[in-house]
Structure formats: structure tokens, C-alpha cells
Design brief:
There is one protein chain. The protein is an all-alpha fold and about 200 residues long. It contains nine helices and no strands. It is elongated, with a radius of gyration of 20 Å. The relative contact order is 0.11. The N terminus is likely disordered.
């Protein structure tokens, strides 16, 4: 039976399948989900689902890509406020990264299985995510150089370094390690540390 939440009149068949898959992966986990179950949730036959996706792995990859694109769009939007200084843009980026991870963790579910699957079998998607996020950091750091706020010789290398430093704030499965207050405190401390380093003169 079709779920009313999927709004089939507004979505393409492929989008309906992906919506159903996201919900089932989150509730039952990637490993315990079958193509037949996704098809049933999407309100179509098991045979019909193969017209759009050749297997469960392809569906999982598409789900992951959609989420990564949405995440990148959010991060881009919050740092492109012309009223913010470069330091404020970087702080906003870090705090938003943490907020997204905390929101994802608060949803509960079994998304960790899907993340593990994608990391293992589709590392190209993970590399794309990293590349896109580093590009946002490059944008922030370049702006800081232009305004004289930062003094960075190799912007690309610094973006890669900062991105690596932020991993603990980026992964939903890490969110149980500390309270929200402790994570906020650590994010603020790391932000101050990074900005202080970026502002040093040669």
C-alpha cells in the first residue's frame, strides 16, 4: 500500500522508491532491507522497481548522494551571508556541520549501516562529499585572504587540514560521545584555535 507521506502525485517513480528506501533503511537497517520490501513500501511490484534501479546497492548510493547534496547546499547557504566576516563564516560552517550531525543522530534509526555500506563499496561518493566540503572551506579561506583577515599561503592545503580536524563534529555516529553542550563547547574552542592560526602573519 502506498504511504500518503510519499505524495506519489508529486514525485517520479524513482523518487518514490528512494523515499521508501530511506525510511526502510532508517527503520530496519540496510542489511535487513530487501528490494521486494522497498517495492512494497513504494506501492509497486518487485519487478517494476528494477526498471529504475538494478539492485539495492544502487538505491543506497542514490539515497546517499541525495543526502550529501542536500547537506552541501545547506552548508553553502549558511556561509554565503555577505554580512559575515571570514571568521564568522568559518564559525558558522563548523557549527552548522555539528548541527546537521546532531539532527541526523537524533532521528535514531539504523543509518550507520548505510554509511558503512557506502564507505566500503562506494568510496567515490565519500570522496565527492569531502571534495565539495573542502571547496566550501576554500571559498571561506580565500575570502579571508582577500579581506586581509587571514594570511594563508596554500588555501587548498589549509582547507584539507581544517576539514580533517572537523571529523568529530561531522559524523552522526559520534554524537553519542558527548552531550550537546560539550560538543558546542568543543566546537567553539576548535573554532577559536583555527581562526587564531589563520590570522598569524608570515
Amino acid at each position: 500500500m502506498k504511504s500518503p507521506a510519499l505524495q506519489p502525485d508529486k514525485l517520479s517513480p524513482a523518487e518514490i522508491i528512494l523515499e521508501a528506501a530511506v525510511k526502510r533503511f532508517g527503520e530496519y537497517g540496510y542489511n535487513k532491507t530487501t528490494m521486494a520490501e522497498i517495492a512494497d513500501d513504494a506501492g509497486m511490484s518487485a519487478a517494476n522497481i528494477y526498471r529504475y534501479f538494478k539492485n539495492k546497492e544502487e538505491i543506497a548510493a542514490e539515497c546517499a548522494k541525495n543526502w550529501m547534496c542536500q547537506r552541501t547546499d545547506v552548508l553553502k547557504s549558511v556561509v554565503r551571508d555577505n554580512q559575515l566576516s571570514a571568521a564568522e563564516k568559518l564559525e558558522t560552517y563548523i557549527l552548522k556541520t555539528l548541527e546537521i550531525a546532531q539532527e541526523k543522530a537524533a532521528e535514531g534509526g539504523k543509518d550507520d549501516e548505510l554509511c558503512a555500506e557506502i564507505t566500503k563499496n562506494r568510496p567515490d561518493l565519500v570522496h565527492d562529499k569531502i571534495k565539495n566540503e573542502e571547496a566550501i572551506l576554500v571559498e571561506i579561506l580565500s575570502y579571508g585572504n582577500q579581506t586581509g583577515e587571514f594570511d594563508i599561503d596554500n588555501v587548498q592545503e589549509m582547507a584539507q587540514t581544517i576539514h580533517s580536524m572537523l571529523v568529530v563534529f561531522d559524523v552522526p555516529m559520534f554524537m553519542h560521545l558527548f552531550s550537546k553542550e560539550e560538543f558546542a563547547k568543543r566546537a567553539a574552542s576548535e573554532t577559536r584555535f583555527i581562526i587564531a592560526g589563520l590570522g598569524k602573519t608570515k
